[in-house]
Amino acid sequence: MFKEELGDTGTNKDMRDGVETAPASFEEASINPDLIRREGFASEAEYRAYLATLGGHVPVEGTVEELLPISDGHALEGRLRELREELENLRARLHVIQHQAATVVAENVRWADTSAHAQLGNQPWLKLAGAMAATFVVTKGIRRLPLGAMATTALPLVAAAVNRKFAR
């Protein structure tokens, strides 16, 4: 780790608070206290110089402990627990979505009812049913008229009127 402020390079020896820790062993007692760095380093170059004063590279292989082997059963139980948690999460999300969908449908029904009341007044569904029944009756009446004979007679009259309009 590097710090933004400068480390102990000998310029701030007088600024120590006077609290020193006792060395843990004879080897630590014989180490030069100026070589012990507790604050961090200002740059990577300073860090590499510090490592060079300590004697260079320290092997890491001896300090790493071997990891305990994890049984397959334990790994499967952990994965099963993760999948159950994910399933519960998905169920909760689905419940929220179902609730939102029900709310949207209810709001749409309420909006349609309000819109019908605004356009048709009181009892809009009865008025709509009456309009549909009237349309049905008028359609049946028009089908019974002899429109073929009327269309045959009116068609040349309509064509002559259109020709006169275009001729102007």
Structure explained in plain terms:
The chain is mainly alpha-helical. Among the domains are: 37 residues, no CATH class; 75 residues, no CATH class. The longest helix is centred in the middle third of the chain and has 49 residues. The termini are far apart.
- Rounded mean pLDDT is 76
Percent of residues in helices comes to 55-70%
Measure the end-to-end span: 97 Å
Largest sheet: none
Write a brief caption for the model:
The protein is an all-alpha fold and about 170 residues long. About 65% of the residues lie in helices and about 0% in strands. Among the domains are: about 20-55, no CATH class; about 70-145, no CATH class.
Strand and helix map with partners:
Elements: H1 26-29, H2 44-54, H3 72-120, H4 124-144, H5 147-167
Helix pairs in contact: 3-4
Keywords: Coiled coil
Coiled coil: 73-100
List keywords for this structure.
168 residues, mainly alpha, disordered N terminus
